[in-house]
Amino acid sequence: MILNALSITLIFIGFLSALLALWGGISSFILYKKWGRPFKPEEKTSLEDHSYLVLLIMAIVLIIRLINWPLFYVTLQSFIPDIEGAMCIFGVTQVKVGLTRFLEFLKPINFFLIGGWFILHVLDRATKTSPLMKRKLLLLSFISLLVLIDSMGDILLMIGIVPDSLVSCCTTVTDISSRPTRTTPESVFGPDYAQSLRILFFISHLALIGFIGANLKFKIFRRPILGFLFLLSILNAVLFILSQIEVFAPAMMRLPFHHCLYCLWQYVPVSIVLYLLFILGTFSVGWGFTTDLFGRQGEGIHLLPVFLKKIYLFALFFLSASLMMLLIHGLVS
Amino acid sequence: MKQKREWILLIIALIPILIAGCKNRTSEDRCDYDGFHVQPLYAVYFSLQDGSEKKYCSLVCASMSFSALKKQIREVRVVDEPSGNKINALGAFFVESEVVTVPHVKNRIHVFAKKEDALKHIQTFKGNWVENPFR
Questions:
Q1: Distance (Å, rounded) from C-alpha A168 to C-alpha B132?
Q2: CB contact set of B66 (below 8 Å; sequence gap of 6+)
Q3: Chain-chain contact of B105 with A168 (C-beta, under 8 angstroms)
Q4: Which of A84, A258, A260 is facing B103, going by the closest CB pair?
Q5: At A193, is the pLDDT very low, low, confident or very high (cuts 50, 70, 90)?
Q6: Strand order in B44-48's β-sheet?
Q7: What is the mean pLDDT of chain A?
Q8: Domain range summary for chain A, segments of one domain joined by +
């Protein structure tokens, strides 16, 4: 176990959120089961008070879990000097490959679900009759389960990473010619796959921005359209990752044969902002869809267009800003 | 209207900051393959036809670049481990042993200018001869 301020913080947060997620998950599921049943006025007041307490505490836990995602990578970065052979976060991930990969997969899912839940929570709070409470509680109990798994994973990983472990780093994995990020597009686009990836990414990114802009202008917040935007944002995210690994990251680092994204964050720290903007933009598109999916009930229906407009404006801003950064980087490079 | 102008001013002010941030910090002793800090004892140097030089932190990084740059390379220089002198790779002896020199790529290939030094390393660290990776 490597002890430093960050790992201690991560373990502390892990314990705290695991305990509260367990309590909050069970409580919200019980409340979900009870919500909507006929009760006496004093019982109903008690139920409402209890649910507000659960929501308040869980909202704090979920905010902490949102911060946990970047904190996780900062902590892994802090371990680099203690792991022999690690030159970037990739090397640290090699100490406990399976668990780290699982957490790296789970954390963005949690971030997305928590963000989506918060929007739903804010939408529900804006109403007078809380029509979304039942859905909110059910979603919360599911998110609590994921938060519990994530927190336990964090603790296990922090305990499992021992100092002076010998690992080999990204160069021997991300740069080999048989890497899937190269072979897959190469099999589709041929030897000039890098150029095709670059063009395809710009097309999909601009198309996504264009569709969001058109949606905002004509205010067409219909579910099939929002679903299409969500799917397009997923496709765009896949193209973003592929083109980053194969095209943009080597160019930004000025290391034409090196394809490690962790090294990119290390050598060009401003790229973290680019990634943050892209993630928030992509997730906002998804949040728009989930808000429409779960928020279309009771009073929520009337407030939904205003909320969706704000969410898609955020998406438009974040995606445009990330594109701007990428272009500026391209020009500077 | 005023709010819009403030936003535009903010974006204009942010652009130079972004441009400054986009210029990555390049250091003299950085490997031209993966950007890692180069230890002079295990470095490999490629002299290119255009007069420029590429520097690598290990034989692994250098050999991974070699295939892509083969046509442009005029000379490959490696470092003799016992003395620390730069020598032409064509005259060097390469030995693979249990000893790892550059951990992040797990490089186990060692370079020697003299055959007796290479033999000594083979005997001490259970090594074996390997071919020059830059042929």
A1: 23
A2: B46, B73, B76, B133, B134
A3: yes
A4: A84
A5: very high
A6: B53-56, B44-48, B73-79, B86-88
A7: 93
A8: 5-160, 175-332
